């Protein structure tokens, strides 16, 4: 018995496979929560994309918007990171003509956009996620989260290589 994982992003585009190249359909998404691949949760997933019939298959283009849980690189709190997911990919049909590793439209016209949306969502996450622009992070001396309150630690140590620059700047200050 095979296991079947239901996907909110599985669509039947069989009608487009019977249409002439250039035929398109616009699809609007508004899901409160979508789980992708067991490790990615998007909430909510909204946006619009266009599915267009081409001579090679079905081309998807559009932009989706969502949030994903992330950890701040400065203060390590978990927060909801807004992301934009661009769609710009071709699903080949018939499947046996698809290059190795490319997305395909199944013979019954089914298309599962979940792998594409998951991949693009992960690529939309910045390398360093920051919870807010003015996040101060942790004190390097005592480890206090400086967003909660100022710990009062003083960082008076100056790199000896920059001491001359500090003296120069002190002379310029009024």
Instruction: Please list the strands of the largest sheet in the order they lie side by side.
Output: 2-5-6-7
Beta-strand segment tally = 8
Computed structural class:
alpha+beta
Shape: elongated
Q: C-alpha Rg, in Å?
A: 25 Å
Query: What is the N-to-C succession of helices and strands?
Result: EHEEEEEEEHH
Mean pLDDT: 92
* Helix fraction by DSSP (H/I, runs of at least 4): 10-25%
| Straight-line N-to-C gap | 81 Å
Give the low-confidence spans. none
Overall structural domain count: 2
Strand content: 25-35%
Major sheet attributes: 4 strands, antiparallel
Number of helices: 3
Topology at a glance:
Layout: E1 10-12, H1 14-17, E2 24-31, E3 34-36, E4 40-42, E5 45-53, E6 57-71, E7 78-92, E8 110-112, H2 114-123, H3 163-172
Antiparallel strand pairs: 1-8, 2-5, 3-4, 5-6, 6-7
Task: List its salient traits.
174 residues; alpha+beta; 2 domains; two-stranded antiparallel sheet; 14% helix; elongated
Structure description:
The protein is α+β, with helices and mostly antiparallel strands. It folds into two domains: 10-123, no CATH class; 138-174, no CATH class. 14% of the residues lie in helices and 34% in strands. It has three helices and eight strands, in the order βαβββββββαα. The chain has helices at 14-17, 114-123, 163-172, and strands at residues 10-12, 24-31, 34-36, 40-42, 45-53, 57-71, 78-92, 110-112. The strands form three sheets. A four-stranded antiparallel beta sheet has the order 2-5-6-7, with helices on one face. The protein has a two-stranded antiparallel ribbon with strand order 1-8. A hairpin with a 3-residue loop joins strand 5 and strand 6 (57-71). The model has no long low-confidence stretch (mean pLDDT 92).
